[in-house]
């Protein structure tokens, strides 16, 4: 079977393959249930229920419950007499062949598994791109220049993990490398371009300034 990516479609295809492997003979699956039938006032009482077979499961009355005299059954139900009260285990056809019943279980289990996998896929966060916040090699290091936004001299350190520190007039300001060639310093966004000996920061307003690598 070719690989199918969608879990729900894959589950259905697997179920169909397994169904084809099941026996073709229509042997019908059976189900059982327990009923109580009571001969009130020692009168004959009939409890209607379609069945394949019936067996006495537990006698509840003091009076005897002997099959053929005090209780019996046919395809349409169970009867009790002479004060017999008992629980009877009734075997019925489920309406599905063994193959169909097995197929229903297989499909149900596979579909539940597929839905769970689908939920997990939806809940799983997208994998972060390792290059999204990683600056290029030419932008990593310590630089000195004049901020195009504040027009103040400062030293700029860009680390390989994308963290940025700006040293300006005794203050240390945080920054972060963003996607592509964009970076932020406090609330300002800049685009970085490579130049000889350093980099150029271009502010969103259009102003720019050059920063050169520290010796």
How are the SSEs placed, and which strands pair?
Blueprint: H1 7-20, E1 28-38, E2 45-48, E3 53-59, E4 71-74, E5 77-80, E6 85-97, H2 98-123, E7 141-146, E8 153-158, E9 163-168, E10 171-177, E11 182-185, E12 188-195, E13 198-203, E14 208-213
Helix pairs in contact: 1-2
| Biggest beta sheet attributes | 8 strands, antiparallel, barrel
Count of alpha and pi helical runs: 2
Q: What best-fitting shape do the alpha-carbon axes yield?
A: rod-shaped
**Order of helix and strand elements from N to C terminus:** HEEEEEEHEEEEEEEE
- How much of the polypeptide forms β-strand, as a percent range? 35-45%
What would you report as the Rg, rounded to the nearest angstrom?
40 Å
Whole-number mean pLDDT:
81
**Number of strand segments:** 14
Describe the fold and architecture.
- This protein is of the alpha+beta class and 215 residues long.
- The protein has 2 domains: 7-123, no CATH class; 137-213, Beta Barrel (Lipocalin).
- The protein has 2 helices and 14 strands; from the N terminus they run αββββββαββββββββ.
- Strand 10 and strand 11 (182-185) form a beta hairpin.
- The chain is rod-shaped.
Descriptors:
single chain, 215 residues, alpha+beta, Lipocalin, 2 domains, eight-stranded antiparallel β-barrel, three-stranded antiparallel beta sheet, 2 helices, 14 strands
Condensed summary:
By secondary structure, the protein is an alpha+beta fold.
